[in-house]
Amino acid sequence: MDNVLSAEDLLLDRLGAKLPPEVHVLTSAELEGAANGNHPTPAAFVVFDGYTPAEATPNSSAQKQTQRWVVISAVRNVALARSGRAARQEAGRMVSQVIGALQGHRLSHEHSVLQMATAPRPIYRNGLAYLFTAWTTTIVTKPTGD
User: Buried b vs exposed e over 123-140: b needs ≥16 C-beta within 10 Å?
Assistant: First the structure.
């Protein structure tokens, strides 16, 4: 594996191909405006959320790591903004599309099949809804030659 973060581009490509064309598929760098709602919607943000080392070969010639990636589905719907119901319903539909695109998908021959993981709690405010899905995939890293 020559790029331990290769899953990012593969996730972006997969979501871009499977989500409706009006959904902006974006990176964590483009998430900066999310704190004040200054980002395009609907959007799916792909964010690396760390890794957990897994088993290694006895001589450490290979090491598995399970990576966690979060997809943040962001929608803006000010209809019924006070209750947030319209935004939640729209976000729920988008999350279903994200799940349909990623559940059981293998990003590449170097990645294990994506598995759904426990996701952070949703965030709702002022007609914006952010719903999260979390995914794990396992890769194998090897030391470089000396």
Answer: eeeebbbbbbbbbbbbbb
Q: Which residues contact 90 (CB under 8 A, 6 or more apart)?
A: 42, 75, 77, 129
Using an 8 Å Cβ cutoff, are 56 and 63 in contact? yes
Cα–Cα distance for residue pair 136/117, rounded to 1 Å:
7
Q: Which residue has the higher pLDDT, 121 or 54?
A: 121
Locate 66 and state its tokens.
């399970």
Nearest CA to 51 among 62, 64, 67?
67
Residues 8-36: pLDDT tens digits? 999 999 999 999 999 999 998 887 766 66
Region for residue 126 given its phi and psi (left: phi exceeds 0; alpha: psi -120 to 50; beta: otherwise): left
What end-to-end distance do the CA atoms of the chain give, in Å? Answer: 17
Domains parsed from the chain with CATH numbers = 6-141 (3.30.2000.10)
